[in-house]
Amino acid sequence: MKRSILIAIIVAAVVVPGAVYAVSPYFTETMIDEPAPVATSGDSSTESMEKDDAMADDEAMMEKDGDAMMDKSDDAIMDDAMTKELSGGFQGAGDGIHNASGKATVLYLEDGSAVLRFENFRVTNGPDLYVYLSTDRGASDYVDLGRLKANSGNQNYELPDGVDLSKYDNVIIWCKSFSVYFGGAELGSA
Question: Could you tell me the sign of the dihedral formed by the alpha carbons of 120, 124, 126, 128, in that order?
């Protein structure tokens, strides 16, 4: 009899903390509100003045060498094609437990880097949640962007240089501990 009580106590000592770890995030809410980084399509007053100065320089350059200006225009067209906005709406796993909503957008910054921005984002909280760029919902091939900062609010994640967004076009929220899909957004042209 004493032995079975001892075994029950040992099992409870292991199971209860594990259950608390797995279930407690469902009852907590974390929130963040990061400002949006300045994207290349943004237009602040400083940027406007810089653009006006650049336009004046471009006009002077055009007078000097029209052919060089045409080459520059071709480069600008290529840059616009490379920085086409990608976005998608979050959806949960569809199981009634793992819910997600909000919008994911790729923002291209002036320094050439890119940021994945979540806006009006909300996902069911859980243990060990990460943000992945993946080829599918099952995270069979993915780029790890790091831990989810909060389960609610606006947040930014730096994209690694050279990541192929035509291949890794699914933003997913993934529980590493249990290999569970919580929600995601498929990136497409805006």
Answer: negative
Please tell me whether the overall predicted TM-score, pTM, comes out greater than 0.85 for this model: no
pLDDT digits (tens, 9 = 90+) for 2-18: 888 888 888 888 887 77
Per DSSP, which regions of 34-186 are E strands? 86-89, 91-92, 100-108, 114-123, 129-134, 142-147, 152-158, 170-175, 180-186
Amino acid at residue number 67:
D
Residue 115, beta-bridge partner list: 107, 158
When pLDDT is averaged across residues 56-66 and rounded to a whole number, the result is: 48
Residue 170's nearest CA partner among 135, 121, 138, 126 is 135
CA terminus-to-terminus distance, the chain: 68
Domain 85-189 carries which CATH code?
2.60.40.200
Instruction: Name the one residue in this structure whose structure tokens are 């509100």.
Output: 33
The CB density around residue 187, as the number of other CB atoms within 10 Å, is 21
Q: Domain spans of the chain?
A: 45-82, 85-189
